[in-house]
Task: structure prediction
Amino acid sequence: MIEEEAVRLERLQKIRQSGADPYPARVTRTHRTHQFVTHFDVLQKDQTVITVCGRMRTIRKHGGLTFIQLEDGSGMMQIALKRDQLGEDTYNQFHDTADMGDFIEASGTAFLTKTEQQTLNVQSYRIITKSLLPMPEKWHGLTDTEIRYRQRYLDLLSNQQVRNIFKTRAVIVRTIRAYLDRHDCLEVDTPILQEIPGGASARPFKTHHNALGADMYLRIAPELHLKRCLVGGYERVYEVARCFRNEGIDHSHNPEFTQVEGYLAYMDYEQLMVFLEEMVREVVVACGLDPTAVPFRGHTLDFQSSWPRIKFRDAILSHTKLDIEQYSDRASIAKEATKLNVPVEKTDSHATIIDNIYKTHVRPNIIQPTYLIDYPVEISPLAKRKTDDPRYVEMFQLVYGGGVENIKAFSELNDPLDQEARFTEQQVARDSGDEEAQFSDDDYVTALKHGMPPAAGFGIGIDRLTATLTDSHNLKEVILFPTLKPEG
Result:
């Protein structure tokens, strides 16, 4: 590597000594590679002089003829440098100064080679970016997944499939935005730096604002600010939100992640289930997939058929024969959890233990897209209670693929006194050592006292949805620059 870099540095100096700029600020490009390929017949017939720019992926010299595979953001094409066309000095100078990986600007006309390959006959060229390190194909370390994530630019250079993942991700976000916009949802921005992190049960990142002399937190969810917008008079709002949670890193978690959260006034959780089913199907189709047969983790998922709705209590009962209604105190449910080989920590609350039973014995067994509905009220302190059974809330999650949870949604709690009481319960849990219990947000309660209309809200993880629709088994594959342990 060091030796090759030295050679390239020498070639860089040769370019500069010739009076050329190896890093010009301005270039000329009349056509992208896909335009050259698409309009080749016309370009060849008219002998139109065009200019293309891109990275040289291969250089093959055959005496006085050199073929180059040129790549830009739209594809690949072939260009040809001919000694007779360019002249001896210019032709030799190219080989004295150019390397694979350099960016080149080339002008010329279209022609077909003897093997009928569409090619640009180069009449003039210049190197517009001199690369000082070799292409990934020459770097054996690229097979190391850790290096792939740390130096993603090399991963993208060497693997078209990886580039396609992030194109799919862009399609997913664009389609969700279009769907929500079409249904009269307003996209807004809410604070990332917050005095009180709320909207989810998670351990936050903490920082300090020097000018204010105050501790701040990176948001764990945009929920409470979005619902303040409903109080303020907007009926439907959403945000494509970067969120942060100070948790472990594994194949399904990254401390920095992207989700779309939305809140729709005058809608309940049953109506929202239908709304989100339609949205997800639209996204699947936009990604070029058959919604009846999406490959994921060795399974074939059917997103087209209506998704079953199973109550949280019934799901645990069917997989463990444990009826959570029979264990209303922490000690009794902890004993049953131990029997089921579910670890119980001293700081785990009654709700946390029930949730861990579900995560251990239910979630891994759900393959096809399924709505798990009606969770215990302790698990979701921001959801509205069920009218016919206030022990449960009008909440649902989309679960599939042997344990993936993606959509989380519920009828929003808009009773300020009930909300205040639940915040108090969460504070008791925090005081008992549960670092993921929610903070009490007095201003949010004040907002509710001014009146928030009946509404339903949802959050959908972009990283997890991208992983699903690209059949990726690790979130690091779908996050361009994932969080990694610092080197050294």
Notes: The mean pLDDT is 94. Residues 155 and 226 are 37 Å apart (CA to CA). The chain has two domains: 2-134, 153-192+224-308+368-477. The longest helix spans residues 160-182.
